[in-house]
Amino acid sequence: MRAAHPAISPQEVAYRLTRTADNPPDGHNAQVGYGMVNPYRAVTGLLGTRTDPPLGAMPAPAPRPDPLARQRTVAIWVAAVGALLAGVLLTLRPILVRGRRRGWRPGRREAAATDPVRPDGARPRASVHSDPWGGSRNRQDRRAARLGVDR
């Protein structure tokens, strides 16, 4: 003990030997008494005790790399791209519905000089049957228009 730690006093040697001894489970045994000396633990122990050493006695453990870091990054990117795609689709839906309803024509147009004007100054509404895609026409009207027959 003195060879490994020449600076310690005889009282500290005794203290280290008693604190690092292997105690029997029941506290006292007729064969070993209160314990057996463990010289290896007495020499190599940080403070000669079997309790946890103080916080400053051991270096802080090195941080371990996160094993799920890549999966977490991929999951965040998938969620972000999915949210962006959902936003784009939710924005396009009303645009597509209105475009189909109008037959992909512009919603408003400037009045041309050749449009007929009623005497009260208002412009006439477009005829229901003027829709080339058959928006409000019934089946017979569309068939007659396709065959060139006037109904």
Shape descriptor: rod-shaped
Q: How many DSSP helices?
A: 4
Low-confidence stretches: none
Strand content: under 5%
What does this 3D model show about the protein?
- With 151 residues, this protein is mainly α.
- The chain is rod-shaped, with a radius of gyration of 47 Å.
Secondary-structure map:
Layout: H1 10-19, H2 39-44, H3 69-102, H4 139-147
Question: What descriptors fit this protein?
Answer:
151 residues, 0% strand
Can you describe this structure in just a few lines?
With about 150 residues, the protein is an all-alpha fold.
